[in-house]
Amino acid sequence: MSRTDMDELFGRKWALITGASSGFGADFARQLAARGANLVLTARTESKLRALGEELSRKHGIEHRVIAQDLSAPGGALALSDSALALGIEIEHVINNAGFGQGGAFVDASAERSAEMVRLNCEALTVITARLLPPMVSRDRGGFLQVASVAGFQPTPFISVYGATKAYVVSFTAGLAEELRGSRVRMCALCPGPVETGFQAAAGVQIAPAQRASVLTSEETVRRGLEAYARGQVVYVPGVVNKFGGLAAKVLPRMVTARAAAGVMKDRGRG
Ligand SMILES: NC(=O)c1ccc[n+]([C@@H]2O[C@H](COP(=O)([O-])OP(=O)(O)OC[C@H]3O[C@@H](n4cnc5c(N)ncnc54)[C@H](OP(=O)(O)O)[C@@H]3O)[C@@H](O)[C@H]2O)c1
């Protein structure tokens, strides 16, 4: 898609971004604002959202709204969706990006933290999609860019719950894309490999030295993700090495990829 077409797709349209206070979410906000999109920014840390929204409005002359919401709290995603609908604006694009992982052996993890992760990474993304998709279908335009991960293609020992939540996101998104075949509503799962953001500190993991050469920046990942979304791609993996990993996960037996991932994750996580 040309630059003009991308500007046409996003310019003066409203985009809602979850997890907009840091990492990919803040880069989605920066890149969409640069294309003229108005933004609804959400995460828990209101001060960061306000600072980012004001900076981008000043720089690009866009409008923005801020909704501070904990999406892993029971009912949090319904509350966010209702607040977004109550703004009285047409939300054209949704970047369902908020998420976290937790490294280490599952046996040592707290049940509460695992449940919180499933609520944020799966339930909140599903509820937001359920609430904000119908108006897009009625208008026959718009779409969702769901942030999954290469971790969604295979078992991920020592970060097992996280990988399972991302497998849900890939499968859910591909299923909906098929349901929407023939409509102009986009449904794209972005599946990055490891990228330096706040993710590593939150998950208690590190990027392995062997992976560093193939690591993309957050900015580059988001740029490629938006281009894939604009092209109408359903499942997109940025980066050659990540693509190769995704392909290997498709052709190799599940327990072979699980063993290989365990070798990498045991050193990267707390476990
Ligand atoms: N970085 C990677 O290596 C990598 C690779 C593949 C996929 N991903 C995925 O990319 C997405 C973005 O992560 P990131 O790498 O940008 O990490 P990040 O810098 O830690 O950003 C996570 C974002 O989610 C928000 N968030 C966390 N818990 C929340 C909650 N309970 N309610 C609402 N918002 C919450 C955070 O804001 P507040 O703390 O202010 O709420 C923050 O804005 C995640 O879905 C992650 O799984 C990351």
Walk me through the structure.
It is a single chain. The protein is of the alpha/beta class. It has one domain: Rossmann fold, CATH 3.40.50.720. The chain is 52% helix and 13% strand. The chain has helices spanning 3-10, 23-34, 46-60, 76-86, 111-139, 160-179, 199-203, 218-231, 240-251, 254-268, and strands at residues 14-18, 38-43, 64-68, 91-96, 143-147, 186-190, 235-236. The chain has a 7-stranded parallel beta sheet with strand order 3-2-1-4-5-6-7, with helices on both faces. Helix 2 packs parallel to helix 3 (46-60), helix 4 (76-86) packs parallel to helix 5 (111-139) and helix 5 packs parallel to helix 6. The chain is globular. The mean pLDDT is 95.
The gist of it:
With 271 residues, the chain is α/β, with parallel strands linked by helices.
The gyration radius over C-alpha positions equals 18 Å
Strand content: 5-15%
Total domain modules = 1
Tell me, briefly, the overall form.
Answer: globular
Report how far the terminal alpha carbons are from each other.
43 Å
How helical, in percent, are the residues? 40-55%
Bound molecules: NADP nicotinamide-adenine-dinucleotide phosphate
Q: What is the CATH superfamily classification?
A: NAD(P)-binding Rossmann-like Domain
**Given the structure, what is the number of helices?**
10
Structural class: alpha/beta
What is the CATH domain class? Alpha Beta
What is the CATH architecture descriptor? Answer: 3-Layer(aba) Sandwich
- Total strands: 7
- Any idea of the CATH topology? Rossmann fold
Mean pLDDT: 95
- Residue ranges: pLDDT <50 for 5 or more in a row? none
Largest sheet: 7 strands, parallel
Q: Tell me the series of helices and strands, N- to C-terminal.
A: HEHEHEHEHEHEHHEHH
What oligomeric assembly is this protein in?
single chain
Sequence of strands across the biggest β-sheet: 3-2-1-4-5-6-7
